[in-house]
UniProtKB/TrEMBL annotation:
GO aspect biological process, one term: methylation
The name this protein goes by in its record: Protein-S-isoprenylcysteine O-methyltransferase Ste14
Membrane topology value: Multi-pass membrane protein
Organism of derivation: Methylocapsa palsarum
UniProt key word Nucleotidyltransferase: no
């Protein structure tokens, strides 16, 4: 990647790859060692609800970032601090969307593996992506970001 490495967050890995890895691992574990939970009657409605919420959060966040003309890819320098739309509710709506989607899959296919991986995904995103992004945004935007951080929750 070209450019100044100091003008981008030093994330552990590209978030969509972390998300895809969690989904892939969940699918593999579910096939090899299926562990089921909850009555099936409740699985589909909860699953579809969480998947819908996940897609909604991520989609609305992408829209706000495109409107603000700031890169979605966290490996690129951020051009503006986005605090509008869904970013008024969560500082990390795309990552929240990923976790909710994974949780929704757990309910939809009745798999405890995906539920465990949703929790692991949240932990990996927080440690390897969100914390480095927050440090970067604080350095880049200073007080406006600190105020935003004080007023808006990280997840929900």
């Amino acid at each position: 990647m070209q450019g100044d490495d100091s003008d981008r967050p030093q994330i552990a890995a590209f978030p969509p790859l972390i998300f895809a890895g969690a989904l892939g691992l969940g699918g593999l574990l579910d096939v090899l060692i299926p562990i089921r939970f909850t009555p099936r009657a409740y699985s589909a409605p909860f699953g579809l609800f969480f998947i819908g919420c996940g897609l909604g959060f991520a989609g609305l966040a992408l829209w706000e970032m495109f409107r603000s003309k700031t890169p979605v890819d966290p490996r690129r320098p951020t051009s503006s601090l986005v605090t509008t739309g869904v970013f008024k509710v969560s500082r990390n709506p795309i990552y929240l969307g990923m976790v909710l989607f994974c949780l929704g899959v757990s309910f939809l296919i009745h798999s405890l593996w995906f539920m465990a991986l949703a929790a692991a995904l949240a932990a990996v995103l927080q440690k390897g992506v969100i914390l480095p992004e927050e440090s970067y945004l604080e350095r880049k935007f200073g007080n406006p970001y600190r105020e935003y951080k004080a007023n808006v929750r990280r997840w929900l």
